[in-house]
Design brief:
The chain is an alpha/beta fold. It has a seven-stranded mixed sheet. It has a six-stranded mixed sheet with strand order 1-2-3-4-5-6. Helix 1 runs parallel beside helix 2 and helix 5 runs parallel beside helix 7. The longest helix has 20 residues. The radius of gyration is 19 Å and the shape is globular. The chain starts with 7 loop residues before the first strand and ends in a 7-residue tail after the last helix.
């Protein structure tokens, strides 16, 4: 795998670490950036709540994010889903969040966020407004960055215009991609583009000619349920195209909620390797094993049944669970 020499890239929380997220810490000699400082668990999968192992991973990854936030000068928000930003309310059941945690992440930071007044769906518009009112008011500076570029010394941080969250005209709205350039090295961060599925988003990614691309993959587990197989197939073809042009691709997020994700990409991985390129998960990028805890949830409940105390907590109404930490 071709290593970057000037830009430090540290994946912090992804599906390959056992949680829903794409949080990444990036550092150059000029600036320290925390991308999409959110993390969550899927509240229900296979008719089951998260397993205790998932909560251990959630707590662990939240701590990773908080440690990175202590160093970071800039924190970004590509969109307002809770696995990509941390709200200012308490929710131990899904997000491991609280007003204090949010303040530690965004307080006294430069916050580069997606504009919540344009190219956004209703739920994210409301979340963006709440963020501005709560955590945003604690920041040193809150900038809405759709299509904008910023310079820190010799480092350029550039944000795309909004692109679709998955398929064209998706009801899930739009997201921002981020490009970080230092010297002759360039990292592209493309959260929740789901492949990408859209041809225009693919074109934008290829035009960047990045050395490393961090891509949110398609949700294979929703094929023919919420997303057509033809769109999934198009996303996989687009991933194949990216890996031909980008030396290192980190592919993670939605795609790793399916245990057999590697089977769908076997040919792409082999073809990438044959030309000296790499397609890896976030965990593989840092030399760790993949922990697909959500995809393994049903098996985990079978082989490691949770305690009675945990199951009593898990049966509480969600509004109560959010206020009470799970008994681990």
């Amino acid at each position: 795998m071709k290593a970057l020499k000037k830009i430090k890239v540290q994946p912090l929380a992804f599906e390959s670490f056992g949680v829903r997220s794409m949080c990444t810490y990036i550092e150059t000699s000029d600036v320290k950036i925390l991308l999409d400082a959110g993390v969550s668990l899927g509240p229900s999968r296979f008719g089951l709540p998260p397993h205790p192992k998932e909560y251990f991973a959630l707590k662990e990854r939240r701590e990773f994010i908080l440690r990175a936030a202590e160093k970071a000068e800039v924190v970004t928000i590509s969109h307002y889903h809770f696995d990509h930003h941390t709200p200012s309310f308490t929710d131990w059941a899904n997000l491991w969040s609280s007003p204090e945690i949010s303040a530690k992440i965004y307080g006294n930071k430069i916050v580069f966020a997606k504009n919540f007044k344009s190219r956004i769906n209703f739920s994210q518009r409301r979340r963006g407004w709440l963020f501005q009112k709560k955590a945003g008011s604690l920041s040193a500076r809150l900038e809405y960055v759709d299509g904008r570029s910023f310079r820190f010394g010799c480092t350029i941080v550039r944000f795309s215009l909004p692109v679709f969250h998955g398929r064209e005209d998706s009801e899930l709205g739009w997201v921002l991609m981020t490009v970080i350039k230092y010297g002759d090295e360039k990292v592209l961060y493309a959260p929740d583009v789901q492949g990408p599925m859209c041809r225009e988003t693919l074109k934008m990614i290829l035009e960047e000619k990045s050395d490393l691309a961090i891509i949110g993959g398609p949700p294979l587990y929703l094929a023919d349920f919420r997303i057509s197989k033809s769109l999934i197939s198009q996303a996989l073809k687009n991933i194949a195209t990216i890996t031909k042009h980008v030396p290192v691709t980190i592919l993670d997020h939605h795609i790793l909620r399916e245990k057999k994700w590697r089977e769908a990409l076997r040919q792409v991985i082999d073809d990438s390797s044959s030309i000296g390129h790499s397609l890896v998960t976030a965990a593989e990028y840092v030399g760790e094993p993949n922990r697909l805890l959500e995809a393994d949830r049903k098996v985990l409940f079978e082989i490691e049944p949770p305690s009675r105390e945990f199951m009593r907590w898990a049966r509480l109404p969600m509004r109560k669970r959010k206020r009470i930490r799970p008994p681990l």
